[in-house]
Amino acid sequence: MGRSGHTLKVQAMLLRKGSVKYGEKGGSRTAYNPAEPSPDFDKWPERWMGTREDREYGKKLLSYMEEFLDVLIKVKGNRSRKTLKIHIDNAWLLGGLIIRHVSMYEEYKTTPLKKLMESVESGGILPDGYDHMTERDQSAFESTCELFENYLKKTAPKKKSHTG
User: Fold this and answer.
1) How many CA atoms are closer than 13 Å to the CA of 121, on its beta-carbon side?
2) What is the model's pTM?
3) Which end of the chain is more exposed for a tag (fewer CB within 10 A), N or C?
4) Could you tell me what percent of the chain has a pLDDT over 70?
């Protein structure tokens, strides 16, 4: 995984022990763990893949997603569980779209960071079947992409070691 290592797993452990709190406004709420609604988080690359190359690329991509979701959880603690779940689901959708595109056009030499940044710019790439998505779902997907884009712009220079 990325620099954050097994942060999500540690959060899950602390959550089970009831020792993590977040949200200064509105009282204390239990910390949110993305593995709770997405227990297969570590298996996302396998879920996205069509070939072994896809899985390897997906593993590199997942480290950025883990760090992004970790920041959403820690820094944006006033988000509801439902909103965080939507961002997690949209991150999964985004990853699958990226892997599909990389695989179809054999863009494995494009770094995951570059491909991720291209994919989230200007509201993100449109998912297959987007015309069947509700306006609310499209807006939520665009919101996730916008948050991800802002996160990457702030942190990308520090992540050059991940670009391989």
Assistant:
1) 7
2) 0.74
3) C
4) 71
Cβ-contact 121, 73 below 8 angstroms: no
* Nearest residue to 119 via CA among 54, 52, 65: 65
Contacts of 1 (CB under 8 A, 6+ apart): 62, 63, 66
Cα–Cα separations (whole angstroms), residue 135 to 90, 130, 141, 144: 14, 9, 10, 14
How many domains would you assign to the chain?
Answer: 1
% of the chain exceeding 90 in pLDDT:
54
Mean pLDDT value across residues 5-28: 36
Range with top average pLDDT, 20-29, 72-81, 152-161: 72-81
Considering the domain boundaries, does residue 81 fall inside one? Answer: yes
Q: Is residue 70 part of a domain?
A: yes
Considering the domain boundaries, does residue 9 fall inside one? Answer: no
Residue 52: C-alpha distances to residues 7, 64, 95, 104, 150 (Å): 26, 20, 16, 14, 30
Mean pLDDT of the 21-50 span? 65
Question: Does residue 90 sit within a domain?
Answer: yes
Residue 125 is classified by DSSP as: P
